[in-house]
Amino acid sequence: MTYQFDFSSLLPYWREFAEGLWLTLQLSALSTVLGFVGGALCAIARADGPPWLQRAVGAYVEVIRNTPLLVQVFLVYFGIASFGLIVDANLAAVIALVINVVAYTCEIMRAGIESVHKAQVEAAECLGLNRRQTYWHVILRPAIERVYPSLVSQYVLLMLASSITSQISAEELTAVANRIQSDTFRSFETYIVVGLLYLALSFVVRWAFWGFGMLIFTRRRKLGTAL
To answer: Most exposed residue of 10, 15, 169, 180, measured as fewest CB within 10 angstroms of its CB?
Structure first.
């Protein structure tokens, strides 16, 4: 093997790597928040909505979960443009990621909602809780706690999958790496650095979710098992 590694040629590009890393975090954070809200609403609709809404949400979930994210990104980006609307690549990336992760969050949350025993709901009704209070205190909060590890894993995967948005010129970490390797011709070194950055970012995101879980889940905080 005669290949000579040369990481020094990448040092002048540290600012570009940092900017790409920061945009990756921004895309992931915004998509996670919007995806969780949308997924929770879809889960409620699918678990306790009228039949037509259950079918509509179910069809949406099946379509999204059985088509590639890359195709969804292209459909959003070029689909919006076909209507004459000029949309920034980063905004299109967020829209596509949210559309994707809502479907997966819906199914995870639906499993959590269905794990709540009906007797608990009946007890809440006997105590005089209205529908909103019952859903929040008796159904949603325990459901979120039960599926929290699965949600964390899904959102870490979302962060990694954001690399696909480089195909529509969203300037996240992978797009930056593509540009740098074309300038330096050090493809191997560039993607080694990017892989290590994604690995570090995954640990940071998991740690952040662990801290958040410890903060909001009292029982898990006592057990020390936020994830």
So the answer is: 15
